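The protein record quoted for completeness.
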Amino acid sequence: MICRIIEGDGDGKMDNNNNNLKGVPLSALIWFVVRNANGNGDSNSNGDDGNSGKEIESRIANALHLKEHQALRFYDELSRRSGGKPELVTKELFAALEAREKLRRRCERLEQKRDELIAEREKIRAEKTQLVHELEELRRMNEQLGRN
């Protein structure tokens, strides 16, 4: 299972165990796989033909080689887009994340204020309706007094 995570198994399916490993550094995953593959000292005790250590080593080497290529392509793209200074892109990304968080907080406050204003508007409407009824009642009473 951990070898599939290291290889970046592309099926998109993540079970609960994989979710727990999401933030684990790649080096820790590799160490854990190698330790478990060689940890029991007897490669045939788990029923395989003795090639599991070599198979795991090969899978990890292939996965790391692929990740190196991906990292280089990503770095090259960042370099091209930033005029040779990919560090600027990361600074811009962090600034954008900070600005996004500020905007999210402002949006939440504005939504709260909007809800408060809507509630206040409804309260004013109810008071207005009550005042209109009371005014009508006063007019009716004045007309009755005027007739008497």
